[in-house]
């Protein structure tokens, strides 16, 4: 089979090999600007939108992908060379691969190269929605104060140099200011990140910034911009070199950066789009009045489950999530965590079936074909724990205080942050707070509570005697006996064996 480079010109050559866009991409206008064109966006929103564009009457909802950060050069160059095209490879439960070329990203911009162009794009009249995948840490929220972090030097820089911003807040503010000055309509700003109340968070953080940077704009934003909350879901591991070469060998597609993902996908959105929206419900998204139950279920079970498996798995020397999820002792531990600690907290949620959700999660985690990297899951844990794990703990501490499994995982994270697994292999910690994590992890060897003193992550958790006791006991146990032996003990209900 001849191999061709993936681009517009060669698109026809692939149509008998994999699914390809059947719509005329030249007719598609940009209605959405998306900031953060990583794997998740391309497996999720861009996929849904591609499906929608197959309906001939939909021509207004093409995506302009914006690469915001300096290190996004590679994805920007790749998409530019490939005319925005890429292959989405769905790894089915039986191991077969379903491949389709996605065409919904019709434009790409690289913000560091031309910031004004990005600002103008967001301010252009045809754009109705700005979507974001800027990661949990990207919202610039300080867990200790509950407020926007003005100490971030990039934020200070954006205030001083408004037309050459570095952060999403700087870009959005200047673009909205132009819309206001030009008498244009407002837009919807839609977060697609894993944050409880992600729309509320986006609104709160943006307005905090605006009130300092461009105070006169705040009222206009209040009246002209909407911020729907949404739950997003699709496990999307980092693309490996093997994924790239497989695609070349099996389908003759020379794609520098395909995306691989699981078959499952979910998108539950609050219907609050001030300037109109695509009919994403026609391609499987759900529009609901209140997304909170769905968000809580997903963050506190799926994302938290990931962090549990990630941190324990990393210490045990595993490399992928399926390996650790299929370890029977860890699997039992995770199920106990979900049943005893998370489910009671989520019990009152309306409209969600927790039992079947938990069962489907265990199957998804255990999927041996996905090979989701533990490294990916453990990265930026300092932004993830406060959103995924700690809300359950806080609620538990107000009631029956079943926090043993969560305390165990936090203790494992403290030990993980020393930088070695249980066999002494160096761990690749990727975290904006790495220096602090490592410092406190080392201090914890003498006084385990030192790790809990990182206030921007743990708030006042160190003041909870119940938590500190369970955490300290777990810390000593893991150090003395290793994760697996402790887990085995906990699974058989005899945890306290320091
Ligand atoms: C993961 C998520 O980053 C993480 O820790 O839990 O990326 C997860 O895979 C997605 O939210 C799945 O929808």
TrEMBL record:
Lineage, top-rank taxon, reads: Bacteria
Q: Give start and end of each Mannitol dehydrogenase C-terminal domain.
A: 290-478
Kindly list the GO molecular function terms attached to this UniProt entry.
oxidoreductase activity
Cite the EC number. Answer: 1.1.1.-
Sorted alphabetically, the keyword list is: NAD, Oxidoreductase
Q: Any idea where the Mannitol dehydrogenase N-terminal domain is?
A: 31-281
Main EC class of this protein? oxidoreductase
**Listed PANTHER family:** MANNITOL DEHYDROGENASE 2-RELATED, MANNITOL DEHYDROGENASE DSF1-RELATED
Output this protein's name.
Mannitol dehydrogenase family protein
């Amino acid at each position: 089979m001849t191999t061709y480079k993936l681009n517009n010109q060669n698109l026809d050559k692939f149509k008998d090999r994999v699914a390809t866009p059947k719509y005329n991409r030249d007719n598609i206008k940009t209605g959405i600007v998306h900031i953060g064109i990583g794997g998740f966006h391309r497996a999720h929103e861009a996929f849904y939108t591609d499906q929608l564009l197959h309906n001939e009457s939909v021509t207004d909802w093409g995506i302009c992908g914006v690469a915001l950060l300096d290190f996004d050069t590679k994805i920007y160059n790749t998409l530019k060379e490939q005319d925005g095209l890429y292959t989405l490879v769905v790894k089915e439960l039986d191991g077969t691969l379903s491949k389709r070329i996605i065409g919904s990203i019709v434009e790409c911009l690289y913000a560091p190269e031309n910031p004004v162009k990005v600002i103008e794009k967001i301010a252009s009249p045809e754009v109705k929605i700005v979507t974001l995948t800027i990661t949990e840490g990207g919202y610039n929220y300080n867990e200790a104060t509950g407020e926007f972090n003005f100490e971030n030097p990039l934020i200070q820089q954006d205030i001083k140099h408004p037309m050459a911003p570095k952060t999403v807040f700087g870009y959005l503010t200047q673009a909205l200011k132009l819309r206001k000055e030009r008498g244009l309509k407002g837009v919807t700003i839609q977060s697609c990140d894993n944050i409880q109340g992600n729309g509320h968070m986006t609104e709160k953080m943006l307005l905090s910034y605006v009130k300092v940077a461009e105070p006169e704009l705040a009222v206009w934003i209040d009246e002209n911009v909407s911020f729907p909350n949404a739950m997003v879901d699709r496990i999307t591991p980092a693309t490996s070199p093997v994924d790239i070469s497989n695609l070349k060998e099996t389908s003759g597609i020379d794609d520098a950066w395909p995306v691989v993902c699981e078959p499952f996908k979910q998108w539950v959105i609050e219907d609050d789009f001030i300037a109109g929206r695509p009919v994403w419900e026609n391609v499987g998204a759900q529009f609901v009045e209140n997304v909170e139950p769905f968000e809580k279920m997903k963050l506190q079970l799926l994302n938290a489950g990931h962090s549990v498996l990630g941190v324990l798995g990393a210490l045990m020397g595993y490399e992928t999530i399926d390996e650790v999820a299929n370890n029977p002792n860890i699997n039992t531990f995770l199920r106990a965590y979900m049943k005893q600690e998370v489910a009671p907290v989520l019990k009152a949620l309306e409209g969600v079936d927790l039992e079947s959700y938990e069962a489907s999660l265990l199957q998804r985690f255990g999927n041996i074909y996905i090979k989701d990297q533990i490294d990916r899951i453990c990265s930026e844990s300092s932004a993830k724990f406060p959103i995924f794990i700690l809300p359950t703990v806080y609620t538990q501490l107000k009631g029956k205080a079943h926090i043993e499994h969560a305390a165990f995982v936090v203790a494992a994270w403290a030990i993980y942050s020393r930088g070695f697994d249980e066999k002494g292999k160096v761990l690749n910690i990727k975290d904006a707070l790495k220096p602090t994590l490592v410092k406190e992890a080392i201090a914890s060897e003498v006084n385990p509570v030192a790790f809990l003193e990182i206030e921007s992550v743990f708030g006042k958790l160190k003041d909870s005697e119940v938590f500190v006791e369970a955490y300290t006991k777990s810390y000593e146990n893991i150090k003395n006996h290793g994760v697996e032996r402790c887990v085995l003990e906990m699974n058989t209900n005899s945890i306290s064996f320091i």
